[in-house]
Amino acid sequence: MTLTVPPFERATVLVAGDVMLDRYWFGPASRISPEAPVPVVRVDEIEERPGGAANVAVNLACLGVATRLLGVAGDDEAALQLARLLRTAGVEPRLLARPGVPTVTKLRILSRNQQLIRLDFEQALDPEAARSVAAAFPELLPGTNAVVLSDYGKGSLDEVRALIAACRAADVPVLVDPKGRDFVRYRGATVITPNQAELEAVVGPCADDDELARRGEALRRELELDHLLVTRSEKGMALLSADGVTWLAAEAREVYDVTGAGDTVIAVAAAGLALRLPMATAAALANLAAGIVVGKLGVASVTPGELSHALHRRGKGGRGMVGEEDLLALVGEARRRGERVVMTNGCFDLLHAGHVAYLEEAKTLGNRLIVAVNDDDSVRRLKGAGRPVNPLEDRMAVLAGLAAVDWVVPFGEETPERLICRVLPDVLVKGGDYRPESIAGGRCVVAAGGEVRVLAFRSGRSTTGLIERIRGA
User: Fold this and answer.
1) Catalytic-residue membership of 375
2) Which domains are seen in the chain, by residue range?
3) What's phi and psi for 12, nearest 5 deg?
4) Which segments within 44-89 are labelled E, that is strand?
5) How confident is residue 63, by pLDDT bands cut at 50, 70 and 90?
6) Rg over CA atoms, the chain
7) Taking the model in full, what pTM does it have?
8) Cα–Cα dist 6/68, whole Å
9) 22, 76, 177, 263: which one is catalytic?
């Protein structure tokens, strides 16, 4: 299977379920309380993040997915703060207020990145809360490419059967993160995503992989699911479908915190299905994302740039296409590792041996090579009508498949000077007969302590020459 990071920004996903506010209090704990044998934490930092179904929504928005969220909250300060955080993250929230019921809030107190205690503030929802979710759901379904139902057992999804039926009637994939032992209520979903312990609570203990596959497949058939995606911690994932089982090995990474990893898995899988990717591909991307998010503290999310970087580190081609903001984050990470960054730019319309030799030589000047590529409009302005021969996405994909290239980023201006001055590579490279002082962005690079180098193309090889030979054939 060849994995690439898809254009997540083309997808729209609706999340419905139990929303929460996660609060973190950080501080040193250097003494024991004289009042009781407990540590005294001097709180010096407070952080708040959306949790539960809201974290699923934030994960989707971080991928660039247009994200709507439907849930139940209290008529309180925590609800207002949760709505603010969601809007800031790019999520469109629809929080149905229930006066007298507190917004579910989880307060975690940590010292030196170790969780000391968690305090939960919540109250059981009445049946009317779930009915209000079911009533509002059809209004948000049109224009949606996939739906996630995030069930934390708080009561928002007590009418889950009606929601699944609405999705099926609208031919919209619906993914469910289940809770409890009553999986029958999720009958007819496209996918459910239990972890292995949750699955075994329903089907019984599984002594080995064969038994898990056998019991899981029986459950998938009984519940009329298209797929069953089981997360298995350090063992990775198991995807059960009508055509068999796919075992996905865990991505090797130091596990720092598994909080919210399941939210990331279902978010990435939903984004993949929203784009009509095969389920096996969506699951592989979700598995990759899980390996990234467990290396972060608390509930967290991943970006397309992080996925691209993870794929590229695995030595797979075609994974280096990134946007400008993601590129800056990746360059910052590379610099923290002490890596030397090289950058070049061009149209790269018809890639030929001269380009390949030039890019390979450029890579020898550092550890990471960035190629900035003219978008289609800027190529037309530079080269005239009829160019480019290949559209931007194809040109970037071909470049990203080269072993020498780490990241490929587009730009639309006449020159890449603005982009280069933001990236500030250690080495700026250009091919041809340029003078270093005349290369766009060179002054910024030199002023920042970098250098500008000019490399020669192989003579007799050019895109224009190729086009002329093709036209004359």
Assistant:
1) no
2) 8-302 (3.40.1190.20), 324-472 (3.40.50.620)
3) -125, 125
4) 45-52, 66-74
5) very high
6) 26
7) 0.70
8) 20
9) 263
